[in-house]
Specification:
binds adenosine-5'-triphosphate, alpha/beta, nitrogen fixation, transcription, Helicase, Ruva Protein, domain 3
Length: about 550
């Protein structure tokens, strides 16, 4: 829970702020003087400080100086009665984030504190680059495909150079993560880092947000305001969604980038500011330039060094790494023990197009982990949008069956009639071209020939029908003409595959070609019981079956 420090010598104001913030589910610690505030800052992690400008033992500026010695990035919001606003403005120039006038408007307080927490997250949570392994840190950039290697190289080249950088890529590809990495690996890391989303603020407000305004500059401008460019001098400003900035503001921006100077809205004083800009957009700037929507000079200035983030659908097997990364983190966050993703679910995740990119994948995995009751995340727990987009033919993409079963299954499937609604590869005479009935690949001397062939085909067939019913097991069982309970054996089979992969003690082959479904089920139950030290309830949970079914099957199978 974010922790906010509120410092005010007026008990009534202190309480008002405390209550307003506690209602937002923040933890609030309070102090009535500078000395007490410093003690709290040294002892506890504080995310944001809300400080009265005038304290009995110090004014805002001296307090801010002391805070900076303890925590150089702590977002500080000053609270002031009208007469002291010049102190507040000077404090902002020295790096305070914002100031509020008394009497405090609770909605504004909450808005400013929420923004301060966002800045805290952007500046203080380190971004790690993990090209080739899953990281325990959720803020890591994961991925090792060639395009991501290029991204890492670019970050390495440009982070420490004091140049403007443009980060491009579809929504949810990690642009903000890269902006944070650029800041954290830059020479300006001691300086402030502020972020403005140009698409989220109406044009007039955006101008004043970026450049500040003088008192009376427009209706409602009841006091002077310092803009982000002034406030961030010596630091880094992240301008997200820069493609959404209006042409008027684009001109003002190009001047700051070129001349490092600007005027506040409604002001004549020219203000100099040394800010490094990192911009990001998902928009097609070249087209916007040719359509006259984006200034060409700004485009060339920004595009001097650009980093392109590929869409998730072009990152190949990075998807698998990201799935693992998000599964581990969702389990940690939600206190769940989902240990693996089933082959079917993995196939659906690989085939989906991911228009919302990494952000969408992160959300899908989190929701699926939340829904999963056993140790395996099954395709059933994925949203329909993902599963429905999966190709209805799993044959080519299925994960390989164990060892010799693979070839045999292919042969057997080729010999089997095509499932309903799907045509086999046929020649113009309508005669199936694939395979014959000789079933090469099977050992015809095996005492278990029947089980070898049927067992190999059965998984493929059940998979295929489950795909066609969108994971609806009852409907799949009806189409297959079997008892729904039998499908659970198939789930057990998947579990067995996966469990054995993670069980170093189990050296026996996962599914021997001669094993019947009952034997496979028995093996899955045996292993689940072993893993849970014989606890039937926990073993049932792992297998995704009810405890009653587990009791019954243990008895029936004589385990
Ligand atoms: N390569 C990656 N490795 C791990 N997590 C990632 C990666 N890329 C993005 N993420 C995560 O995906 C989410 C979205 O990323 P981010 O906000 O940086 O995207 P964005 O491109 O800035 O999106 P938008 O354009 O919508 O603002 C974040 O939670 C981020 O941590």
């Amino acid at each position: 829970m974010p922790r906010i420090l509120v410092v005010d010598d007026e008990p009534a104001d202190l309480n008002l702020v405390r209550l307003a913030l506690e209602k937002q589910a923040y933890e609030v610690v309070t102090a009535q003087c500078d000395k007490e505030a410093m003690r709290l800052l040294r002892q506890r992690r504080i995310d944001v400080a809300v400080l009265d400008v005038m304290l009995p033992d110090g004014d805002g500026l001296s307090v801010l100086k002391k805070i900076r010695e303890i925590d150089e990035h702590l977002p500080v919001i000053f609270v002031t009665s009208g007469g002291e606003s010049s102190t507040a403005i000077r404090a902002m120039k020295l790096g305070a984030l914002d100031y509020l006038l008394k009497p405090i408007n609770v909605a504004e307080l909450r808005r400013v504190v929420a923004r301060a927490l966002e800045i805290r997250r952007l500046t203080d949570v380190p971004v790690e680059i993990n090209s080739d392994r899953i990281s325990s840190d959720i803020h890591s950039i994961i991925g090792r495909c060639a395009a991501m290697q290029e991204v890492y190289k670019s970050i390495g080249i440009v982070a420490a150079q004091d140049v403007t950088v443009l980060i491009r890529g579809e929504s949810g590809t990690g642009k903000e993560l890269v902006a944070r990495a650029l800041y954290q690996f830059s020479e300006r890391v001691q300086g402030p880092f502020l972020a403005v989303n140009c698409a989220a603020i109406p044009e007039t407000l955006l101008e004043s947000e970026l450049f500040g305004h003088e008192k009376g500059a427009f209706t409602g401008a009841d006091r002077k305001r310092i803009g982000k460019f002034e406030q961030c001098s010596g630091g880094t400003l992240f301008l997200d969604e820069i493609g959404d900035m209006s042409p008027v503001l684009q001109s003002k921006l190009i001047r700051v980038l070129q001349e490092k100077q600007f005027e506040r809205v409604g002001g004549n004083e020219t203000i100099r500011s040394d800010v490094r800009v990192i911009a990001a957009t998902h928009r097609h700037l070249e087209k916007m330039v040719s359509d006259g929507e984006f200034r060409a000079d700004l485009y060339y200035r920004l595009n001097g060094f650009s980093i392109h983030l590929p869409p998730l659908r072009d990152r190949g097997s990075d998807l698998d790494l990201l799935v693992e990364h998000f599964r581990c983190h969702a389990c940690g966050d939600l206190n769940k023990e989902v240990r693996m993703v089933s082959p079917d679910a993995m196939r659906a995740l690989r085939e989906y197009d991911w228009p919302g990119n990494v952000r969408e994948l992160q959300n899908v995995i989190r929701q699926a982990v939340l829904k999963t009751s056993g140790p395996v995340l099954l395709a059933d727990f994925l949203p329909n949008s993902v599963v429905d987009a999966t190709s209805p033919n799993p044959v080519e993409n299925d994960p390989p069956l164990p060892d010799n079963v693979q070839d045999s299954a292919d042969q057997a499937m080729a010999a089997a009639p095509p499932p309903a609604g799907k045509s086999a590869d046929t020649n113009p005479n309508g005669v199936a071209e694939r395979g014959d009935c000789s079933l090469p690949g099977f050992n015809f001397d095996s005492p278990h020939l029947y089980d070898d062939v049927i067992g190999a085909v059965e998984r493929r067939l059940v998979n295929e029908v489950l795909e066609r019913t969108g994971g609806d097991k009852t409907e799949a069982a009806r189409r297959l003409g079997i008892n729904p309970a039998l499908l659970r054996s198939r789930a057990a089979l998947d579990l067995l595959d996966l469990a054995a992969l993670h069980d170093p003690d189990e050296s026996a082959p996962l599914i021997g070609p001669g094993m019947t479904m009952a034997e496979i089920e028995m093996e899955a139950i045996r292993r689940a019981l072993k893993e849970t030290n014989g606890c039937r309830k926990a073993a049932a949970r792992r297998l995704g079956i009810s405890t009653r079914t587990m009791q019954r099957r243990v008895k029936e199978l004589g385990l």
